[in-house]
Design brief:
By secondary structure, this protein is mainly beta. Helices cover about 5% and strands about 40% of the residues. Strands 1, 4, 9, 10, 13 and 14 form a 6-stranded mixed beta sheet that branches. Strands 2, 3, 5, 6, 7 and 12 form a 6-stranded mixed beta sheet that branches. A two-stranded antiparallel sheet has the order 8-11.
């Protein structure tokens, strides 16, 4: 379910080497609004969830809430936009939800952003959605020093008729997965 972003870099390079300058599929590129939803009763109603260094995997927060780790790392999602992947993307010509993962490193350790994992599900029946690898989507391979933040643009498959999205983010291999869930227009 999770896709290692470092592997995505190789896929992006392969797409570029194979003629990534092809024509793009029509894109709806509509900005959407994420509704606030706390899918589980335990999901802190103040807009943040704190854990003992990690966020428990069985708790979820709304799509636009912030997850804080004891290590000083914060993760949140913003800028939700529906789009369609290009004909050279992986997967190609697929409706998806583009979003920004904001990572803030308020801790004392440097983070390796190539360890970030992103997983996706959609629909009321919980279908696994593929992460989209396309031009304009980021695949960080750098480090994030203490006191700095990074914006990573990512995308997850979301068919046009679906409105429920679950996006899971693990900022590194040592942290539990933060689960963001809710409806988008």
């Amino acid at each position: 379910m999770r896709t290692r972003l470092a592997a995505a870099t190789a896929a992006a390079l392969l797409l570029t080497a194979c003629g990534g300058g092809g024509t793009e599929a029509p894109s709806t590129n509509e900005t959407v609004t994420a509704e606030q939803e706390t899918p589980t009763p335990e999901g802190g109603g103040d807009g943040s969830t704190e854990g003992s260094g990690d966020t428990p995997q069985d708790e979820a927060v709304g799509l636009s809430e912030t997850v804080e780790y004891d290590s000083g790392v914060e993760v949140r999602l913003t800028n939700f936009v529906r789009s369609v992947s290009s004909d050279v993307a992986s997967p190609s010509d697929t409706p998806y939800l583009r979003f920004t993962v904001v990572v803030v490193n308020s801790g004392s350790e440097t983070m390796d952003l190539s360890e970030m994992l992103i997983g996706c599900m959609y629909g009321e029946t919980g279908r696994e959605g593929e992460q989209i690898f396309d031009e304009g989507l980021d695949f960080p391979t750098t480090h994030l020093r203490p006191g700095r933040s990074a914006n990573v643009t990512a995308g997850c498959e979301l068919p046009e008729e679906e409105t429920y999205a679950q996006i899971e983010v693990a900022p590194d291999f040592e942290s539990d997965t933060a689960i963001f869930a809710g409806h988008v227009e």
